[in-house]
Design brief:
The complex is a heterodimer of chains A (295) and B (204). Chain A is mainly α. Chain A is 66% helix and 5% strand. Chain A contains twelve helices and two strands. In chain A, strand 1 (64-69) and strand 2 (72-80) form a beta hairpin. The longest helix of chain A is centred in the C-terminal third of the chain and has 29 residues, at 229-257. The two termini of chain A are 18 Å apart. By secondary structure, chain B is mostly helical. Chain B is built from ten helices and no strands. The longest helix of chain B is centred in the last third of the chain and has 23 residues, at 148-170. The radius of gyration of chain B is 24 Å and the shape is flat. Mean pLDDT of chain B is 82; it is low at 63-83. Classes of the chains: A mainly alpha (295), B mainly alpha (204). Chain A binds chain B through residues 8, 10-11, 155-158, 161, 164, 180, 183-184, 187, 190-191, 194, 239-240, 242-243, 245-250, 252-254, 256-257, 268-269, 272-273, 276-277, and chain B through 29-30, 34-35, 38-40, 43-44, 47, 124, 127-132, 134, 157, 160-161, 163-165, 167-168, 171-173.
Chain lengths: 295, 204
């Protein structure tokens, strides 16, 4: 359920676009440096956003170098050098991806996932050691999610709450000492997690109907088989959109009181436009804009 | 005290007009209405205080100014409408941020009237459960349509969702021209063209 948090490309300045990409590459390189090269496939935008947000409140400016990379060895790219927030985000990536793959294995008996999880074993140990308290909470939240699925929880808010708590936990690293900053980051994380969870559930409606899988949206709004998916979506889309927009509103309001030192433009773009665009595309309110597909 | 120009996000030596404009913009941004039932409302209040101080500092000896200092104390205005003491207690807990205690007390009440649903909605709001919050506040409004407090809370939610969208839109999101704008543009082009002796569209 990752990859929803991206900028709205058509309104980014070129230098902001370059900076976002430099963070993306920076996280990828950090994953390689801290762990191994295979885990770099687990790279995603949501954790890039986390790294970007966390470094935006730090005093030090990021150091940018031009390097080639495995994916494209000839073309040199701007890359943010490994820093505190990138190291943190890379460790969290490892923990999340490992449990995600394990979850796929348990749910769908997907051998592919089981094999894919093996290169994560050693890194997981390292990440677990370094961020033990975060790792425990992540595992706890994921277990709770499984429990909710088993009990067929029919309240969207309740199901999303657990994933929100997970994101809340990872959005505030231990090295942040200021209590106010911590509170703000946690509230951003909570709402972001909630938003991702509900959007993902909406995105999966067709598949979940087909596979008869758990989906809180189907349960809360009593989907019945005689209804077409489109009719169902039409019936519920307004209230889902309201609930999701309120989460984005909470994120933006929290961001406004955060003491940002750099990269304000990119983060504002993501908070006010990128996430909104993603949401509107998934809720079928908007055609995918050619330029805004992906970075 | 931080540099007041920095607080108001303007360059040093900005004119009085600029200061006022910046101040107005910031007050709107951090206005208590925008943070109603948001767990971070106290931090927004601090920010507003800092903005007010910076403004006062810059405006000293510069004539009158209006300060926008509404209270976000929604419960204060409404206490007198409320006879039930348990609800008063619950409101006090919510006010102090003790959401769990408030929720527990609320759950122990069996008759679930409009007030109950309203407070439940507020608790959900503080937790970020916006879907449930909306349902409960809506129900409170349905049960007691003449209560302005419930209605205000409901409207506040809608207006905040709109305010969020407005900011994105003002920054360039969704700039595709509407049908009207296309017509307008064609019509103007045609007029201009005709002025210069040509014709873009024959029929208009």
């Amino acid at each position: 359920m990752f990859g929803y948090v991206t900028p709205y490309k058509s309104e980014l300045k070129v230098r902001e676009y370059d900076m976002f990409k430099a963070y993306y590459c920076g996280l990828c390189k950090t994953l390689g440096k801290e762990f191994n090269h295979i885990v770099r496939f687990g790279l995603n935008y949501d954790l890039t956003f986390l790294a970007l947000l966390l470094s935006s409140i730090e005093e030090e400016k990021e150091i940018i170098t031009r390097e080639g990379c495995i994916a494209n060895p000839l073309k040199k790219k701007d890359i943010v050098n490994t820093n505190k927030s990138l190291i943190y985000a890379s460790n969290i990536s490892i923990i999340l991806i490992y449990y995600k793959l394990l979850d796929n294995w348990k749910d769908e008996k997907s051998i592919k996932s089981l094999i894919a999880a093996t290169p994560f074993l050693l890194p997981l140990k390292k990440a677990n050691n370094a961020y033990n308290n975060k790792s425990l909470v992540i595992k706890d939240c994921l277990d709770k999610l499984t429990e909710l699925e088993k009990n067929k929880c029919n309240r969207i808010d309740e199901a999303a709450d657990t994933f929100g708590k997970l994101m809340e936990e990872i959005s505030a690293p231990d090295y942040i000492e200021d209590n106010k900053t911590e509170r703000i980051l946690k509230w951003i994380g909570y709402n972001l997690g909630r938003w991702i969870y509900i959007l993902d559930a909406f995105n999966d409606l067709e598949d979940d109907i087909k596979n008869k899988s758990y989906n809180p949206v189907l349960l809360q709004y009593n989907y019945n088989k005689d209804e077409t998916v489109d009719n169902f979506k039409e019936r519920i889309v307004a209230s889902i959109e309201f609930s999701l927009t309120m989460s984005l509103e909470a994120i933006s309001k929290s961001f406004e009181i955060l003491n940002i030192r750099k990269n304000q433009g990119i983060i504002e773009n993501i908070v006010y436009m990128g996430t909104r665009h993603k949401m509107e595309v998934i809720l079928n309110k908007r055609e995918v804009c050619k330029h805004a597909k992906s970075i | 005290m931080r540099n007041p120009y920095e607080v108001l996000e303007i360059r040093e030596g900005a004119s009085e007009e600029e200061i006022k404009a910046a101040y107005k913009k910031l007050v709107r941004k951090y206005h208590p209405d925008q943070y109603a039932n948001n767990p971070l409302s106290d931090l927004a209040e601090e920010k507003l205080k800092e903005i007010n101080e910076a403004y006062d500092f810059l405006m000293k000896n510069k004539g009158n100014y209006n300060r926008n200092q509404e209270s976000n104390n929604w419960s204060n205005q409404q206490y007198n409408n409320n006879n039930s003491s348990i609800y008063t207690q619950i409101r006090a807990y919510i006010e102090r941020g003790n959401i769990n205690q408030a929720d527990q007390m609320l759950e122990s009440i069996t008759s679930r009237d409009a007030e109950w649903n309203y407070l439940k909605g507020i608790i959900f709001l503080r937790r970020g459960w916006y879907d449930m919050a909306y349902q409960h506040i809506q129900l409170a409004v349905n049960l007691d349509p003449y209560n302005t407090e419930y209605r205000t809370a409901l409207n506040n939610l809608a207006s905040r969702a709109n305010a969020y969208r407005d900011i994105g839109t003002s920054r360039g999101y969704r700039k595709d021209p509407s049908f009207c704008e296309i017509c307008q543009c064609l019509f103007c082009s045609d007029c201009l063209c005709e002025c210069l002796g040509g014709d873009l569209i024959r029929c208009i």
